[in-house]
């Protein structure tokens, strides 16, 4: 599949869409807005209408085939341990790394980035209902609604819906962002965002 410049229809959500998606999943609109705000600063697309991504070299290290791994390491696109090198800032830099990794192995590269409003990792494409990572990425290009549906499917299939319903942000952050969530204060940020949206 050819993705070109990763620009698609890029249809944005409105408040009515968010409320409907929250209702479908039995969670508060303010809770869903809080997750969106913390994961992607409230938008699933960058200023060039590309899905927001974060390319993860430690994931690419695991995803890329062994015969291409040395090339990926040499080019600074793969390393064994998370946090070994700071992330480059800005969407252009993230896409530059993704495209360079795709030149080595497209599927492994797409699986090694997190995508859209929910920042769902590409390797989770089957968890969220996409047969291939290419199908998953194409849907992310289409709309923020698709991105949120993927996020909600991930939350549901990871057994985290009750944590969102109960506003148990620490348990949710642990399940969604991993055991290192506290280092980035994900639970604190989620709680503060929920309070802000609840007051609207």
Proportion of strand residues: under 5%
The general outline is globular
Oligomer: single chain
How does the major sheet shape up? 3 strands, antiparallel
- Assign a percent range to the helix content: 40-55%
Q: Kindly report how far apart the N and C termini lie.
A: 43 Å
Provide mean pLDDT, rounded: 95
- Widest sheet: strand order? 1-2-3
- Provide the structure class: mainly alpha
Integer tally of domains: 1
Report low-confidence residues grouped into runs of 5 or more: none
* H and E string: HHEHHHHEEHHHHH
Question: Using DSSP, what is the number of strands?
Answer: 3
Q: What is the helix tally?
A: 11
**Mind telling me the C-alpha Rg?**
17 Å
Describe the structure.
This protein is mainly alpha-helical and 200 residues long. The protein has one domain (15-160). Helices cover 55% and strands 4% of the residues. The protein has helices at 15-24, 29-40, 57-63, 66-74, 91-104, 106-111, 133-142, 144-157, 161-165, 169-177, 186-198; strands at 53-55, 113-115, 120-121. Strands 1-2-3 form a three-stranded antiparallel sheet. The longest helix is centred in the middle third of the chain and has 14 residues, at 91-104. It is globular. The N and C termini lie far apart (43 Å).
Q: In terms of topology, how is this protein built?
A:
Blueprint: H1 15-24, H2 29-40, E1 53-55, H3 57-63, H4 66-74, H5 91-104, H6 106-111, E2 113-115, E3 120-121, H7 133-142, H8 144-157, H9 161-165, H10 169-177, H11 186-198
Antiparallel strand pairs: 1-2, 2-3
Helix pairs in contact: 1-2, 2-11, 10-11
């Amino acid at each position: 599949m050819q993705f070109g410049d990763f620009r698609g229809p890029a249809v944005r959500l409105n408040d009515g869409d968010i409320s409907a998606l929250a209702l479908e999943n039995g969670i508060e609109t303010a809770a869903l807005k809080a997750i969106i705000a913390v994961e992607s600063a409230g938008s699933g697309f960058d200023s060039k209408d590309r899905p927001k991504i974060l390319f993860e070299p430690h994931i690419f290290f695991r995803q890329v085939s062994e015969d291409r791994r040395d090339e990926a390491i040499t080019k600074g696109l793969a390393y064994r341990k998370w946090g070994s090198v700071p992330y480059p800032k800005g969407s252009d830099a993230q896409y530059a790394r993704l495209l360079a990794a795709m030149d080595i192995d497209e599927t492994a590269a797409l699986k090694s980035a997190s995508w859209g409003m929910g920042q769902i990792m590409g390797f989770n494409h089957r968890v969220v209902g996409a047969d291939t990572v290419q199908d998953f990425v194409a849907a992310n290009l289409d709309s923020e609604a698709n991105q949120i549906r993927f996020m909600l499917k991930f939350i549901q299939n990871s057994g985290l819906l009750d944590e969102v319903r109960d506003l148990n942000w620490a348990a949710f952050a642990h399940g969604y962002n991993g055991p290192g969530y506290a280092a980035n204060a994900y639970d604190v940020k989620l709680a503060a965002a929920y309070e802000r949206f609840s007051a609207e």
